[in-house]
Specification:
Elements (H helix, E strand, L loop, with lengths): L4 H25 L3 H28 L8 H29 L10 H29 L6
């Protein structure tokens, strides 16, 4: 499997989670608690899937942390991003547990969680582009 395949799959999963958290926000604005919980649950499952693909990909990719500076930086930044995803998941789980306390008139906590999730999504785009660029230029290291 090529170096960019795992990050590509992870990107698709993360985009699906972005759509799910947006759906959760819209459900809250409509005061649809069931849809809110389902969408948050989907977001959480997709976030866990993202971390799983990343962990699996680390063991299978051609990139090696000790190969060169580019590879070491890539591992460092993707690891940092993974930490942000994990923290975001904790926040989203808290939102799911506290879903009954949010309302269309009091959406701030969920909105903050959703916006932070979107920031993490956007940061991933930069990392994915970096992964593809490094792979294309042969910096993967072996």
């Amino acid at each position: 499997m090529r170096s960019w395949h795992f990050p590509f799959v992870a990107t698709l999963i993360l985009f699906a989670s972005a759509a799910a958290v947006t759906s959760a926000h819209h459900a809250l604005l409509r005061d649809n608690r069931r849809a809110l919980r389902v969408a948050l649950g989907c977001t959480i499952l997709l976030g866990l899937g993202f971390i799983g693909v990343q962990a699996y990909g680390y063991g299978r990719t051609a990139f090696q942390m000790s190969a060169n500076l580019c590879s070491a930086l890539l591992f460092m930044w993707t690891g940092y991003h993974g930490t942000l995803v994990a923290v975001g998941l904790v926040v989203l789980i808290a939102c799911l547990l506290l879903a009954g306390r949010f309302s269309a008139k009091r959406p701030f906590g969920l909105e903050l969680a959703a916006w932070s999730w979107h920031v993490v999504d956007t940061a991933w785009l930069v990392l994915f582009a970096g992964t593809v660029l490094l792979a294309a230029r042969g910096y993967a290291g072996h």
